[in-house]
Amino acid sequence: MRVRLAAGRAVLLVGAALLGLHFTAALFSQMPLSPLKLRYYPHVARYLEPYFAQNWMLFAPDPLSDDRGILVRARCADQTVTAFYDVTSPLVNRVQHNRFFPSRMSRLVTSNAVQLAAPDPVLARLREAEKTKDRPQLPLLPQEKTTQEEARRALERYGLSQLPAGACAGRPDSVQLRMYVHQPPPWSQRKDPSAQGVTDAHDYDWTKAEDLR
């Protein structure tokens, strides 16, 4: 009996320690930019992303107000190129059709899409201030480049895994990622069927499939 109680306490202590480490990592990711964060954030990001990534984009003063997603196409071994196929919408639809126990796979795409497209809010404000003063803008920091590269590779790897059956006769040779950001029409035009909003898209360079395995 004593052995069971000791084992139960050990499990609780280990669980509490792991939970504490998780919340410490989440809090660290949201702390203001500092030399400490610049140095250790890549290590924390490797643990948090993609399933536990944190952001405040649902809240004021700058809530997320657009639709973001990715399309992927592949170049086959015979050099034929497939059409772009939607990777984001199927995952979002699965979440919307199961509100009580939604799949978390959508975060694999949405969190990496945000990391790829959205800069650090502090650095974004700094660059915007430099732009208004006609000063040279701060280039991307190593932390930002690393985060964007890791997010891009994660999206390319997942997109490659979702290649429709029969799209390539053999193994795909390379994959290309397209990121889109759709700005819905203003609320005042919500009942106007001709109002489509604005969509911006960016195509990334082709990446060899063998580099993603």
Structure description:
The chain is of the alpha+beta class. Strands 1, 2, 3, 4 and 5 form a 5-stranded antiparallel sheet that branches. Helix 4 runs antiparallel to helix 6. The radius of gyration is 21 Å and the shape is globular. It has 6 helices and 5 strands, in the order H-H-E-E-H-H-H-H-E-E-E.
Counting DSSP E segments of at least 2 residues, the number of strands comes to 5
Q: Which overall shape is indicated by the principal axes computed on the Cα atoms?
A: globular
| Mean pLDDT across all amino acids | 79
Low-confidence stretches: none
Tell me what portion of residues adopts beta-strand conformation. 15-25%
Helix content: 40-55%
For the termini, the CA-CA separation is 49 Å
Summarize the main sheet. Answer: 5 strands, antiparallel
- Class per helix and strand makeup: alpha+beta
Topology pattern, helix = H, strand = E:
HHEEHHHHEEE
Q: Helical stretch count?
A: 6
Gyration radius (Cα, Å) is 21 Å
